[in-house]
Predict the 3D structure of the following.
Amino acid sequence: MSKDEIHYDITHISFLEKLWGDGYMSPGGKKEINRLLNGLDLTEKKILDVGCGAGGITVSLVKDYGAKEVIGVDVEEDVVNSAIKRVVKNRLKDNIEILLIGKSNLPFEDNCFDIVFSKDSFVHIPDKEKIFSQVFKVLKPGGFFVFSDWLISHDQKPSKEMEYYLKLEDLGFGMGSPSLYHNALKKSGFVSIKKNNRNKWYKEEARKELQILSGPARKSYEEITSNNFIEDQIKTWKAMIRVLDTGEHCPHHFLAQKPEN
Ligand SMILES: C[S@@+](CC[C@H](N)C(=O)[O-])C[C@H]1O[C@@H](n2cnc3c(N)ncnc32)[C@H](O)[C@@H]1O
């Protein structure tokens, strides 16, 4: 992987974990995972976590939700190493496997997972239909696909404000609209597709995050990164809040099912 393709190095991981919780590289912590799972029964299930990041959620799926086996996959070396350390620290090597995979495919047999889970990772994958078709193949008939992701509210050209935010974010974002996601899921074969717009929640949450970054705690964030790094993050957060306020940036939860046969 070239240097340009690395989005989450050690510094970035430490920054996100400090803001969002140990092992978490996306907002909301355990509460948001609970809302996303919304009572879905994970006990004794075999689960794939796509874009597992530093593994905080991957571990929680076993520890807090009783999953029997979880395979976490990611494309970046630093996050994979961090997730492996977390699994070892939690003595969950028998239940959790973390794999570094290539960007273009999920290296698993067909029909082998009960549930495919993902939190805020598909935004990095521009071809939604291709990735959702792969998820469909690896799921067992009747299996569930549950994920959260960062979406754009429409299919037109992004607004100037959104373009500015995406430029600052510099995370190779490939945002799609709710209808693009819905159609990609449908085309891949999924049924019973449900979605939940989390804009209202994140609009408030992002303000709290900005307050943390620009308030008295800023120094402690600079200590693990740098003054410039935090300055850039504050700029990015302000730009993000602008597009959250207009509703153009609209994180969503999705639940869909692979038909029984
Ligand atoms: C915002 S982080 C979320 C990580 C984790 N799910 C969490 O919520 O803490 C997005 C993750 O997606 C991973 N990612 C990017 N492209 C990917 C791909 N093609 N396949 C799998 N993971 C990918 C990144 O390396 C990163 O770890």
